[in-house]
Amino acid sequence: MKQRPVGFRPHANKDIAHHILLYGCKQPGVRGDNAIWNCGEMAHTTSSYSTAGVCGQGQQIVYAWAMDAPALKLPEGVGFKVGGDTDIDYLVLQVHYKNVDPFLAGETDSSGITMETTKQPMPKRAGVYLLATSGNIPSHSTEFLESACPLSTDLVLHPFAFRTHTHTLGRVVSGYRVRDGQWKEIGRKSPQEPQMFYNVTNPGMEIRNDDILAARCTMENNLDRDVAIGATQNDEMCNFYMMYYVDGDRIADQNSCFTSGAPWYSWERSQYARRMNVNHAPDEISLVPGEPTPRRKGHVSSIRRAENLVEKVHRPRDNTFSRNDFARLVQALNTAYDSDYKMYDNVL
Fold first, then answer.
1. From the candidates 59, 94, 219, 242, which is the catalytic residue?
2. Is the pTM here over 0.90, yes or no?
3. Residue among 122, 237, 242, 276 flagged as catalytic
4. Catalytic: which of 42, 122, 165, 219?
5. pLDDT in tens, 78-110
């Protein structure tokens, strides 16, 4: 008998809800009759609700939504296992609103998710693995926020979908499996597009014990202030979600990888840098699919100075480009990126 498809249908508007997360818990953050509580993030200081974490025990992400993402259908035979003898006894919906003032004034909202479920046993169980960072993005710069962790499991993970999440400064978020120094892309997307779960770049990929899962958020900050990872819309976030399935009804115990992010953490500074063969990471990690030129880490002001000088070179009737201009161009190009990265050297 053909199995009934299962999945998630969101009911939300990006102008009201910034993003929604559905968690599976062994115990919820609060007990008793409290169906609603303040989970601590994007919280209003005058909230009268009880304050607690999302889960009191056994927290794991089941689904995430943002940016008017459409419904998600899981592959045939794949489902999240909930209740019974599983480690998910409760489902908790966390909604991050752009502005809670209307609700404090008496307005209501019905943002939520409809789950399409079945009682029919599924041969494959779904799970979500999250890579995320803390960190800081200096003003007028492009910064890389990176994470990497080896997977510890006796299971074989089959990734089938991925989702990216940042706020307004994110330009591209990329996720990879690194095995024996070889990089294979899980997914890569601009977080400014609908933040839905997309099909993985390489269908049929397997992730096994001791493979390294790595992710990078390329952030571009044109503001006059530094921006840190934080809980409000004025802060930033760096998340890469990998949705996978396993054969059978167990999922991996390890479900997340967090790092401190830039400027304190990078792949090059990681204890796994040599295993990852970081110097041979793919060139397109910071390239938005469909765009010709990747974002490079560095100060935007230096890059703009270089671009202005290059434009001066291409003026056919302008003979004012001097040797000093050329020297400034070389300096601008070299200082536009990391100090270890030299586009041109010894050319004068």
1. 94
2. no
3. 237
4. 165
5. 999 998 888 889 999 988 887 777 877 888 888
